[in-house]
Amino acid sequence: MSSYTPMMQQYLAIKEKHPDSILFFRLGDFYEMFFQDAQTASKEIDLTLTARDAGKGNRVPMAGVPHHAAENYIAKLIDKGYTVAICDQVEDPKEAKGVVRREVTRIITPGTILDPGLLRDNENNYLCAVVIVEDQIGIAAMDISTGFFTCTQTTRSDSMESMESELARLNPAEILIPSSQEDRLRPHLQKKDGSWCRITLWHDSYFSKDRAFPLLEKHFPDSVEEYSLIGENQGAAQAAAAVYFYVLDTQKNSLCHITDLEFYETASYMVLDANARRNLELTQTIRDRKKKGSLLWILDRTKTAMGSRLLRNWIEQPLCNANDITQRLDGVEELVNNSLLRSDLQTALSQIFDLERLVGRSACGQANARDLYALASSLHCIPAIQSLLVDTESALLNFWGQQLDGCLELAQQIHLALVEEPPLALKDGGLIRSGYDSQVDRLREAATHGKAWLNQYEADERSRTGIKNLKIGYNRVFGYYLTVTNSYSHLVPSDYQRKQTLTNAERYTTKQLLEYESEILGAEDRLKTMEYDIFCEMRDQANAKAKNILADAETLACIDALCSLADAAVRNRYTRPAINAGMDIRIESGRHPVVEQMLPPGEFVSNDTYIQRDAHPILLLTGPNMAGKSTYMRQTALIVLMAQLGSFVPADYAEIGLVDRIFTRVGAQDDLASGQSTFMVEMNEMAYILQYATPQSLLLLDEVGRGTSTFDGLSIAWAITEHIHNHSQLQCRTLFATHYHELTDLEEILTGVKNYSIAVREIGEQVIFLHKIIEGGADRSYGIQVARLAGIPAPVLTRAKELLFKLEERDEITLKKTRKQSSDEYKHAQIGFFDSESHPVLDELRKVHIEGTTPLEALQLLMEWQRRLVDEGRSQP
Question: Distance (Å, rounded) from C-alpha 51 to C-alpha 154?
Fold first, then answer.
């Protein structure tokens, strides 16, 4: 290393401590990268690769970006999975002896982003940690940009599944796991939609209770006591400590805005796994992953970034407590009925900036003067919102009005100190208002007077010397100087002292110019330093009030989210749902909240839904493709979800029995990465549902069994329906859409099954879908008619009709035999689901130890049994 220059030796010493990061090394107005970092950056973010003399003939690769534009380049590197270490100058170059001292001031990873240009306003950016502690899994999540910090732990019965559901909800940018648990955890951390998530291995010691508990007791003593984080919730505590250690390590500051650590029970909220979130299109569409076309797109009429993030969280985490839901609904109802109050609140909220992220940047030393001014302007809006909520009737709105603080003294102080439109640069002056500080005013006057003198001195010298184009200039090397072109060199007075020779001119100084230079430059430098110091004092005052401001931000977000729900309810003609203690679901004239907005006004066909938990919990829905079965099922689930998040719903009337989980088995595709076919994916999802659904769950099953042969699929669909109906740990509310019309016979066999179908009108060879749900089952799928609508050639359609007739004639004999079987006979066929009596085939299969099989294995055995029966010439499915 001795062969390198002192500056390059400094770089290499710092890089050695951060081998896994791309080092942005500050040199003047640029961040430079060297060696492999330069080559990587050049390739990944399209920078020009150059070289630098590093001493004794060594030339090393170099690439750089302007410091004022670094944010955009860092964003690209983070998106590509890299970590960036920011290395800044930490001493004044004027006072440095030798190489200016530099240190890494911040490490930027996907989960520790603070720069507004790298974040989405309406989404949290979570850094999560996951740790296995005995038979539980601790999960913690922090959004460093907002100060939000929370933790939980899974139940013993379904730890991995609960973890996956929570991570699907949080959608973290980065997940920390202990190095020793990588093999156990990594297979469960891949996002279901295939998108990339950074997994960071973090030393086991940061997860250990020996380090975790002292840290939490020091920084979050109230949370430790309230949530028993050192008692029964140790898994959550150890995950939370790992997150906090990691953020301290990467951000290099005190994190004064991380003031609270909340613990939550997953049982307090509706559980939605990744499949349900995707299929219901809660926050983005399946096709293009855009907000437009999702439930969030319909409901989000918020006025603040804070409110938009909170509303997203409400949608992704509906409530399961009837009292909490009712309180939200009371607030929405008051805002629906009082349009003037809603309008005034939204007008006031629209003037508020993102307080959470402003506080986050300030606490981490990243805020500029404009950020502080925006924070103060937002705080000034709070009294108006308080006054609007004084006489509100709903408990939530009234409570939130009382909770608001405002921190008006801080807001007034910042507005008095800072100019209305401060510059972005903090150390170039121009931040502080005239009249705020007497010393600043004196220095500013000296600097201003000095510039006026320079202008006058330039005019006087032109007159005295006769040099008409004489000019006063300045640069950092030579200070102030007088420039005289060569054509006027014969007029230069004897008291001019030469400073620099140029191609066409000479630069001079004088005794008077040197005196004023000292006065002017001294005043300007002291003024800039003093203004920066005052700004830092203001920022420290804001940081001291971080907890109060964040509490106000949370309250304002709640008000904004509630106003948004009310606004959506008024615009879209929603009604207040009733939340009952039972488990019945009754919806009159329900509508799909998104689809109806995509259609011209009045075209959407509304439908009723009535699921009686104790009478007929399973609604079997048959009918043709394209007729609206999937829309009907999804709208039912969305109405339930909207009701439980505290929203009004698209229906004339809705009474909702609380749902603990919504499961969806809708569509499927190959999972080639894990070697699973479409049908295997479908069966895996179905096995998961049968294992974890409860009597309080809501199931949406669409075309189960269609990925295999007809009799295989029919057997599976039939057995699953019976299992849901008869199993005491299930018997949950179910919407089952199918093209297996044979399943409609179950209504006569199972008391809890009720048939519904999509109304269709036939006119000759044409079919018109009426999109209306009616009682009774359908006996046709109209597949050929749908093919005609899609434009399949006429010869193909004619031949298809001929084949259909022959196949239906052949299968009718088989199906008649099938329909004669009793419910008890089918129970015998449900291998692995029920304790069955003796059956020849079942007895044979029991010889291979099928007891205790998983639901998926049971389904596979059932399929094998059906195949064997067919091979033997028996036609039972």
Answer: 53
Tokens of 402: 């009382």
Neighbouring residues of 752: CB distance < 8 A, sequence distance ≥ 6: 615, 616, 617, 618, 725, 731
Q: Which two tokens stand for residue 285?
A: 């569409």
Count of CB atoms situated within 10 Å of the CB of 601 = 7
Contact 583, 657 (CB under 8 A): yes
Confidence of residue 867 (pLDDT cuts 50, 70, 90): low
Q: What does the pLDDT average to over 166-184?
A: 93
Residue 449 CA to residue 392 CA, distance in Å, equals 58
What single-letter DSSP state applies at residue 294?
A: S
Q: Can you tell me the mean pLDDT for 850-861? A: 50
800: how many CB neighbours lie within 10 A of its CB?
A: 15
Of 446, 445, 469, 472, which is closest to residue 457 (Cα–Cα)?
472
> What is the 3 state secondary structure string of 816-827?
HHHHCCCHHHHH
Q: Which token pair is 741?
A: 């019309």
How far is 314 from 645, CA to CA, in rounded Å?
Answer: 6
- Tally of CB atoms within 10 A around 408: 13
Cα separation, 669 vs 677, in Å, equals 7
DSSP 281: T
C-alpha torsion angle, residues 234, 238, 240, 245 (rounded to 10): 150
Question: Which has more pLDDT, 626 or 605?
Answer: 605
d(CA 258, CA 220): 9
CA atoms of 159 and 266, how far apart (whole Å): 11
Which region among 69-78, 137-146, 149-158, 780-789 has the lowest average model confidence (pLDDT)?
780-789
| pLDDT tens digits, 9-42 | 999 999 999 999 999 999 988 999 999 999 999 9
d(CA 233, CA 586): 39
Q: Rounded mean pLDDT of 679-688?
A: 85
Measure the CA–CA gap between 113 and 74, rounded to whole angstroms: 10
The burial of 425, by beta-carbon neighbours within 10 Å (0-12 exposed, 13-18 middle, 19 or more buried), is given as middle
Is the pLDDT at 846 greater than 90, yes or no?
A: no
Which residue type does 464 have?
R
Q: What is the pLDDT of residues 698-712, one digit of tens each?
A: 999 998 877 776 778
At 574, phi and psi to the nearest 5?
A: -90, 160
In this prediction the pTM is 0.84
Beta-carbon count within 10 A of 782 CB:
20
**Nearest alpha-carbon partner for 419 in 428, 429, 430:** 430
Matching residue, tokens 């499915």: 877
User: Is 480:517 a contact under the CB 8 Å cutoff?
Assistant: yes
Q: Which of 581-590, 672-681, 757-766 has the lowest mean pLDDT?
A: 672-681
- Asked if 569 and 648 touch (Cβ cutoff 8 Å), the reply is yes
Pick the most confident of 145-159, 381-395, 514-528. 381-395
Give per-residue pLDDT as tens, 294-344.
999 999 999 999 999 999 999 999 999 999 999 999 999 999 999 999 999
Query: Does an H or E element contain 758, and which?
Result: strand 753-763
Q: Which tokens sit at 670?
A: 């190959």
Contact 507, 482 (CB under 8 A): yes
Cα separation, 762 vs 747, in Å, equals 26
Q: Are 371 and 361 in contact (CB under 8 A)?
A: yes
Name the average pLDDT for the chain: 87
User: How many Å apart are CA 529 and CA 545, to the nearest integer?
Assistant: 25
CA nearest to 40, candidates 18, 71, 61, 68: 61
CB–CB of 400/555 below 8 Å?
yes
Beta-sheet pairing, 127-133 with 136-143: antiparallel
**323: which strand partners?**
none
DSSP-assigned letter for residue 117 = G
Distance, in Å, from the CA atom of 833 to the CA atom of 851, rounded to the nearest integer, reads 9
CB atoms within 10 A of CB 813: 10
Look up residue 603 and give its amino acid.
E
